């Protein structure tokens, strides 16, 4: 069955960028959703049902099926979004998503809306929210009890991580390439080695939203920064989401995360969370892919012997074509033009490097699409673990962070005081 085109219309991300920035009025503080201030509008007209085909993968652990989710989705419980939760879930079904995470600004009330509406559809909805802090924005996933979230986010991402983790949830750094009004630190700084490494101030971050439909412009710069982290032996999984606020201005599920679940695993939410934590997923707005190295898939670590051959298996299905680029470390080792809409497969051998490295894939678009990234697919890496084996994914523990990055609590408090003084002065000016 032919799949519908993924690119029906260009959008205007500028307005939403402003709206999102305005949503964070002061450092570390997202005002809880102005519930009821924005009347919910049904998703109308609903698009025709789509069917997305993903490829299952066979690994050393057996057969895995592929499912997809969008992890950054707003409902009318956000002051800057339009649709009721049940409407968004129906839209998710139409665009063939298996799951979404509801991430309203400072609110998890959308989950109660779904309960009240008696939602019993096929799409799994996880409870989360979007919160702000000195780190910019983060989406937190699987946090049914939001008590303490606001205070923790205002304090630090470490404190936020503790609250979220106590419920089995995850912290995802949202659109990190964007300055948020009222913040004092370049959000890109949270993607630095010293921030994210073990013992670093951002070690509570479980994944990075490297691809965001609305804030798509810095994606390549973010990707380069993330690869530089991998080069230094630090792996934080990447995800891609839409930051959906309203239909059809935003297209739910473009991009989406495709994650792999063992055949016996029937709990979609549990598999989703463990896949993100491991990096067992890729991000796409059209094509499907599988990549294994010595029968290990994305996010897994392969113990290697320097110079030994490694079998790399690739498969792809790209409705719009494009070029699959296979990377070992930061080098492209092979480029494969993909046939339009036909299943493609290739097996090749690469030599295991002398030190830790990684294998990953991108698909470059056949032709540029306005308001889109130059790539249509990004994978998490398969990690190549050279001796000494079993090195930490977050790098060695080098003790507390020193040097100019040092977002010490004192720095943040000082910055906060500066901001409070600035706001007071502004109010005074306005009053005159
Ligand atoms: Zn945001
Ligand atoms: Zn958002």
Describe this structure as you would to a colleague:
By secondary structure, the protein is an alpha+beta fold. It folds into 2 domains: 13-54 and 65-285, Metal-dependent hydrolases (TIM Barrel), CATH 3.20.20.140; 286-386, Immunoglobulin-like (Sandwich), CATH 2.60.40. It contains 9 helices and 19 strands. It has helices at 13-23, 85-94, 109-117, 149-155, 157-165, 193-196, 219-231, 268-278, 409-431, and strands at 57-59, 62-73, 99-105, 124-133, 136-141, 170-174, 207-212, 238-241, 256-262, 281-284, 288-293, 301-303, 309-317, 323-328, 331-337, 343-351, 357-364, 375-379, 382-385. It has a 16-stranded mixed beta sheet that branches. The protein has a 3-stranded antiparallel beta sheet with strand order 11-13-16, with no helix packed on it. Helix 2 links the parallel strand 2 and strand 3. Helix 4 (149-155) runs antiparallel to helix 5. The protein starts with 12 loop residues before the first helix and ends with a helix. One zinc ion binds next to loops.
